[in-house]
């Protein structure tokens, strides 16, 4: 065992009971991707609008109107897009399932040969291979599931399209509202600076949290997300400033 590792740091138990309970529950459905995408996009697009309008030296009212419109319209659009994407994946899964059921009914021996070759590629051979094929194909449900996962690469977990859409919208709205908060106080002269600091914290926080589900260190993941978001905002600010000089706003 690596001297730097300990069973105290292991992610889950490996006793027979713990393993049985975990496998019975099945793979965990994770909606982190939806939250991260919604949060980053919400913060980036809203702060880009704030920076762009501020770069053009337009009024606070314009910032709030455009920012609020972005929160609702773009947030809904992104949530609807994510919903449609997840639903399309589920529809594709159902199409492939019906296709495999039809193939098993019409050409069972051909489907058994597919199972045989799949497990042969995994190192099974001889009696062990034939026994594996027999076990897989004696249950139609198991047979179809194996074909979907091994032949078509279908996911083992089924995400909810509704939850994906709602989580995306919530993350977009919450994170995207942060750059607008300082502008709600009309007397705040350095609102853009405060918005920049607050939005920077949002970018870094999203990246840091994301690191819990990746191999990157939390500070590196945070800095990466921070750099992406602030670069987008910086470009928007420059565009606003250039357009101001060109069109004479």
Task: Give a quick rundown of the structure.
The chain has 249 residues and is mainly alpha-helical. It is 74% helix and 0% strand. α2 packs parallel to α7 and α8 runs antiparallel to α9 (218-247).
Description of the molecule:
The chain has 249 residues and is mainly α. The chain has nine helices and no strands. It has one domain (30-247). 74% of the residues lie in helices and 0% in strands. Helix 3 packs antiparallel against helix 7 (161-177), helix 4 crosses helix 5 (126-137) and helix 8 (191-210) packs antiparallel against helix 9 (218-247). The protein is elongated and about 80 Å long. The termini are far apart. The model has no long low-confidence stretch (mean pLDDT 87).
């Amino acid at each position: 065992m690596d001297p730097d590792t300990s069973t105290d740091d292991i992610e889950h138990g490996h006793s027979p009971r713990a393993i049985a309970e975990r496998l019975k529950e099945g793979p965990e459905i994770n909606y982190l991707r939806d939250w991260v995408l919604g949060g980053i996009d919400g913060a980036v697009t809203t702060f880009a609008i704030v920076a762009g309008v501020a770069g053009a030296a337009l009024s606070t009212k314009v910032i709030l109107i455009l920012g609020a419109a972005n929160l609702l319209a773009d947030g809904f659009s992104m949530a609807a897009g994510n919903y449609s994407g997840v639903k399309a994946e589920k529809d594709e899964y159902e199409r492939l399932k019906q296709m495999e059921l039809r193939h098993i009914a019409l050409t069972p021996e051909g489907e058994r040969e597919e199972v045989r070759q799949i497990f042969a590629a995994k190192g099974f051979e001889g009696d062990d291979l034939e026994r594996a094929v027999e076990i897989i194909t004696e249950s139609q449900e198991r047979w179809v599931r194996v074909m979907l996962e091994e032949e078509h690469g279908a996911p083992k977990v089924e995400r909810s399209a509704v939850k994906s859409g709602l989580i995306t919208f919530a993350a977009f709205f919450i994170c995207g509202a942060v750059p607008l908060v300082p502008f709600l106080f009309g007397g705040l002269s350095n609102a853009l600076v405060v918005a920049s600091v607050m939005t920077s914290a949002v970018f870094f926080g999203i990246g840091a949290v994301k690191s819990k589900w990746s191999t990157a260190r939390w500070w590196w993941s945070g800095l990466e997300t921070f750099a992406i978001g602030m670069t987008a905002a910086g470009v928007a600010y420059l565009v606003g400033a250039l357009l101001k000089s060109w069109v004479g706003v």
